[in-house]
User: What shape does this take?
Amino acid sequence: MNYAGVSTLPMITNAGQGRGRAVAVRLGGYARISLDKDGKEMGVDRQRQDYSMHAATRPGWTIADHYIDNDVSAYKKTVKRPEFERLLADLTNGVIDGFITYDLDRVARQPRDLERLIDIYEANPKLVFCTIKQDYDLSDSDGRFMARLLVNVANKASADTSRRIARKHKELAENGKNGGGHRAFGWNEDRLTVNEAEAALIRKAHEDLLAGTRISTVTREWQAQGVQTARKTAAPISRTAVKAILSNWRLCGYRAVKGDVFTGADGKPVIGEWDAITTPEHLEAVRAVLEGTKQRYASKNPNDTNAYRYLLSGILRCANCGARMTPNLRSSWTPGGKGSRFSYRCPTKGDGGCGKVSRAGEPLDEWITALVHDAEAALATALETESPEDWPGESRLAQIEADREKLMEAHKAGRIGVDTLIAMIDPLDSEKETLKSERTRFIVERTRAADTVSLADEFERLPIERQRAVIMKHIKAVMVAPAGQGARKFNPDLLKVVWAA
Assistant: This one.
């Protein structure tokens, strides 16, 4: 085979199509670029124009479909290229007669990807594979050899580049400098000053999360407001993107590498050159909430969960047997009719209850909400006159940091050996982690305690998890006594409220 850009068309015509006559060939066009900073797809557009013009010079060739992987790496093993996968499927299923691309390294920078292509072309030798520079007969041993050689060269070039970039990023991280890529959500294009509109969204979302709002609720709110990521993609912002934004270590000024805080030679987090949006302590509490480690920070109330869809689920208890009451929908309820949409019922014996106590849902929800109103108002008044309480472990945590630093200095000066250093630092680090967990719990509980609302004006607009958090701040449980045979009228005398301390 001649590798100086000879067309694969003669190969096709030799396969019984008739020499010298143009053969209709429906090709797919593949374009890819690893990084598109501004999201305008200019790089892949240039590739698409070039391979389309090249295909137009070949008799009978038409571009039947375009497969575009914009801003997608072909070198990173963990990255999946959706359009590349679609291309392989269409080649396998005979949807297209082959494909054309700008260069081989647009298609494969990992030998494993090339081998997948080779398997397809070996199974169907008539498939066309063409690049702007030259064509490759992947059904032929010489063509496979040349393609493998060039992909291995591209792979080594990517590996060398990756190593240099990693070293560059390490140097930037050590000096608290910004890395490459797009600006982070919350900062302006200079990547140093805070974008106040986006920062306000972040701060409010943090407070909402600490107060009990779920990340899915925050995501829906951002989507309703039309909030987009810093890259301004057309798709609605996703839950994954919102979580990444709200947990970014950059928010508290820390330099991070691959999602982990980068520590300097002194063992302390490296502080970035940009303006911070929140404090490390506050961000750690938010990250704990997002990671779902509720046992580390939440109150000991077993009812405190985001899983409930009804206001008093798990809070109500049957006074007859002590079981938690659960909601039960009433299918006979009609809009405009009397009664309640649902009721709270004690589970049957098979589910751990006695099944003898039930109560209409709406009037019970309304009564508890009204009952909590005065407690919320009193709490709001008290908070106005009280200064915020400081976490009592702050001084001890600062002392641990100071002791740890002294030990490190003593080791560097040769006054203590490594065995002694480890023996003395390990218990300090263990106590430090315990204190940080306690601080996180303190921040969350203080935030929820201070999260007062005017129930008459705001309560109905809160998501269900926040409504429950407000109630459980004041009430541990409500014991519901049997109403008796034939009782229909709501009777609050049959309810006993167990108030939180």
